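Per reviewer request, we include the raw input and output of the structure prediction for the construct analysed in the revised manuscript.
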Amino acid sequence: MKVGFVGLGRMGQAIAGRVLGAGHDLVVFNRTAEKAAGLAKAGARVASSIADACEGREVVITMLTDDAALREVTLNPGGLRDSIPPGAIHLTMGTHGAGAIQELAAVHARANQILAAAPVLGRPDMAASGQLGIVAAGPADALQKCEPLFQVMGRRTFRAGAKPEHSIAIKLANNFLLGCAIGSMAEGFSLDGKSFRGPGLQGLRQDHRR
């Protein structure tokens, strides 16, 4: 497939590396061009602009830090809205707000383009080994077209329906649950630590160590 990729942080570089390693025709862009050096050495073409990264591409993937960056890359003059070919797919894989995704889906629809969302579950090291979980939502035919990319990026793809914002809701719920679990474990460890520092709990401490 002819794939463009915008946003080469740690996660972006790892995912782009998987796409390139699978033999897809990859063009990459990042504001800090040095971050593209490794991919260029591996055979990717480094675009001179966002428009250049979109030209002739079937799918353009974005992996960006926040909603502001996504809107800037998509809506600014020469951005994805102006540059993706009609019928092509903007596949956003970052963690964004549902409102931003709904807004950009409407923008792309007016330009005869397609927005699909596929936020990921996992760390950059998991991305590099193709072990991510991918929560994908958007038009069924667009997701089917992206399936060869999902297969090299992750170990499993979870389909979340036809509306891109549905995948965002699932990803945010997942983050919320993980945050609650981490907070609960921290409270438990803190309680445990304070209890065993008490002056009258020497016997309990010794039993615990057994």
